[in-house]
Design goal:
Elements lengths: L16 H18 L4 E7 L15 H19 L7 E9 L4 E9 L11 H11 L1 E7 L5 H5 L8 E6 L5 H22 L1
Antiparallel strand pairs: 1-3, 1-4, 2-3, 2-5
Length: about 190
Amino acid sequence: MDTVQDNGAGCQTAGLEPIKAAWGDWIDGVGKELNGWDWFATLTFRDPDNARYPGWTKPGWKYAHRALNDLMGEMMSNRLGGLSIPYSLACMEYQHDRGVPHWHVLVGNTGVGTQHEERRMSWVDWWWSHYGIARILPYDERLGARYYLGKYLTKQLADVVASPQLTVRYRQRSQQHRANAAWFAAMTSA
């Protein structure tokens, strides 16, 4: 039987490797159901410097969520017009030394390998101009989601945000739509 140990931060970590592995495997499976993962991003916030809000010194929960929504909304808007729409899974954690949130995000459906491929550095620049420092790297399928996001289950995770394309209801509707399209095609070709 595994013994449970406290890592000093109030988080008990012994015996959690199977949970982290299962979480990573689930994330990989969801990504593969859609179109795979293309990028891994770390999104960090700069401390605000705004004379209108002299008492506001650190980004918080609401600000972090708005920033993630802004980024994904901008990416979706950029890809509209017949192109694929990106999807994401984000884990928020707090930087304890600064006392602020930051995001670890997997992003898929960015057009990798097509003529409409999104340029990662354009999104690094976008994040810099709006919020702070971003690091966006190609997703390495050999490492898998357990490498990228699995570890955050044992690190005082603050939140997990999935884009609508990752929800079960969305995927079920999508599967039903494909089944209906296949049925219609079979019926009209006979």
